[in-house]
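Minutes, project check-in

Agenda point 3 was the complex the collaborators sent over. CS summarized: two entities, 903 residues total, and the question is how they sit relative to each other. Sequences were read into the notes so everyone works from the same version.
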Amino acid sequence: MNGSDKGDGSGEGNPCFHCGQPVPAGETWPLQIGGHTRAMCCVGCQSVARLIVDSGCEDFYLRRTVPSARVDPEQLLPPELALVDLPLQAQHHDAPATDDQAAELVLSIDGLRCSACVWLIEKYLARLPGIRMAEMNVASARLHIRRDPALCPTSVILRGLRGLGYTAYPFDPLRQGEQARRASRRLFRQLFIAGLSMMQVMMYAVPVYMTHEGIDPDMMSLMRWASLFLTIPAVFYSALPFFTGAWAGLRARAPGMDLPVAIGIAAAFAGSAIATWRGEGEIWFDSVSMFIFLLLASRYLETAARRRSASALERMQQAFPASALVLGGYPQQRDTTLVAAAQLQPGDVILARPGDTIAADASLIEGETELDLALLSGESRPQSFQPGQEAPGGAVNLSQPVLLRVVRTTRDSTLAALTRLAEQAGQGKPALAQWADLVASRFVVALLLLAAATFLAWHLIDPSRAWATAIAVLVVSCPCALSLATPSALAAATDRLLREGTLVVRGNVLEALQRADTIVFDKTGTLTQGRPQLTAFWSEAPQSRMLAMAAAMERGSLHPLARALVQEAMEQQVRPVDVTMLESVTGAGMQCQIDGVLHRIGARRFVADIAGDVLPGALNQPVAAGAGAVYLGSSAGWLARFDLADALRSDAVTTVAAFRRLGLRTILLSGDQPEVCADVATATGITDVVAGCTPQGKLDYVRQLQQGGAVVAIVGDGINDAAMLRAGDVSFAMGKGAALAQISADAVIMSDHLQAVADCAGMAQRTMRIVRQNLVWATLYNFLAIPAAAFGLLDPWMSAVGMSLSSLLVVGNALRLSRRARGPGRVVDEASSDVAAPAPALAGCV
Amino acid sequence: MEALYLLIPLSTLLVFVAIWIFFRASDSGQFDDLEGPAMRILHDDDAVPGKDAPGAP
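CS then shared the predicted structure for the full assembly.
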């Protein structure tokens, strides 16, 4: 906590005082903090630090234990912030908000790093005028604020928090699964009660197991009654999820894991209660409460791990409403106002700047441009649009600012239609018979038959012991280890994957992934980077010199190909040459003077105007399918041609190979042109290629595969993939892809490494292996214990100890999954080599 | 040993009191954030001691 170890942060060579990253040489952003001059790495960090110091919170730097996050100046103040105050009024105009409602505000906060962040946020807000209370909930990353709305509008608070370097969004309880949170709170209560009950009942059970002389009958009876009362909350409150689950399973005619649990609990409790009432016979209150507690504990851990994934995903997805710049007075005036996209009406004229997403289906009325439809259709190459053409909502404007007239409202636009397609796809999804539940339900039926047989047999031999022995069969077998086998392993694996950057949002991912026999990859943005990269260079002159010229000229351009060239120059550490009179020529390229000679870069026609019509041989090679060519020339002649195309991800080949080794059929399903897809398939080793698919086509193809009996895993990133992601048996969305794809997928690869999908498959294999081991163990235990109980050989304490030990063993085995000992690359190989072994063993014992 | 005849019912009663207290605490939101209070206790409004402490009030 002491700041003295931070030393003097002034001068060069030290890391940035705010974020701890290196300060670029020659570019320090100094700031006076606590009497010292500290160097910052960028204007973003500097402005955040200045706000912290100016608001009197500079103690933050002494309190924090880890450096703060680096601040991207562009992210500091998004213009959409102004919209935050507007929709509130629009939404509530029919039901005017009371003062109380307006005064309460809940925000989602991202970017907390250590305890000092909590201190800084609360202290900073406390100093704003109009704030009555600000309290940070660290566990759920939510900030509760009570304020005077007139003095302190939402946008001021959000702007302040952004200024401090934290991402804050208005919290929407409906959207962000408030219901799930309430359910988990209930589960926590039930777990707590079960634990309390278990500990107390055990206090009365242990003396009975320990004693040799026997206990005074009156005392015994008292202890039994006490145990009965203490077990009541566990059975009638904590065990509710099992009873409702069992009932739901019965009604759906698919008895699941909950049924034996519910019957076990009910029978053991009823039997014990009757024994207590009569004053004779065995009681199993300790077993009942312990059983409930252990089951709830593993269930709680599993849902907690999944909820952490879900909330990480929520925070990542942009919570601002889509917006548009409207020209209200067109064509007389050109002033723009920012409105929420949902408010757009047909006929409105909107401005789309380069980089903007077109908010609704609209026809181009002024300017011509190139639009990126990659997320909508999967086409990797930008499409050029002329005035009069209709652009789909959701397309990204690439080159020029253009004016468009809205044709359809956002509700009816292309993007919304794709969203609906994805929703419908979800409804048709084949109901997954949970594999573990299938095993369990067979076990249940066998167990119930055995218990009934035991009861009948003992009824003939010794009617007084019939009821007790039948219950002993149910309780000793109490599929404790059996039911812990799956959830504990899933919880450990989900938690481990979360730490490695894969968010498992739905429960079936690991189980479905290890059964999958077909994997479908999208192309653009999934197997490829989704952005152009330099793939070929044609020139007589050395590449570095040409790249230096190109980078210098393209610096001022927003075109994606131009940006890719600048990026390439930076990566190769080529220093741009000096240019003068740099200017942009709309729709064509850039021109400038280098050493007094006119140079042009861009479209072929544009350069040909000064370099001559005839291309030299090297530059005249055919351009590969899907690639774009940028020409460079001067008034002295042609200089170079750069071919840029959407390049493969570096881990695409190894990932596809990993799945092929696992024996999966690999399919490339893309909306792009067939030649481009064929190239990518050849490079990665994918056998089946389906190109030119519409979103509906992709969905149909996946359904067709499923009807043929295939279990389909899907990896995608675009809006056009959303429907098939939803329909697939298990699906992954890339972390940098469209939000709609991420919502539709079962898991999200936050790290944006394709390799993570293969790692996940390896993890799925290991998880299922652990589950099988657990099930084998639990089944063996039951094989020994159930006959022993059926023949009346087992004392209750024996079954209690046996059950606890087998449960501990199962949980301990599952926890091996969360260990991080092995490198991620090896997991796949290891799993693929020995996955076949345990399967026959399982088949034999179920 | 006769004391047990009183103590066992009493302990049972105590458990139910504990359950009631737990429910009240849970309703008032005490278990909603199990991490924040541990962080907050380290940061009161005192100035942080240290040789180069900035101009704290």
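Noted in discussion: Residues 1-25 of chain B form one domain.
Follow-up: revisit at the next meeting once the mutant set is ready.
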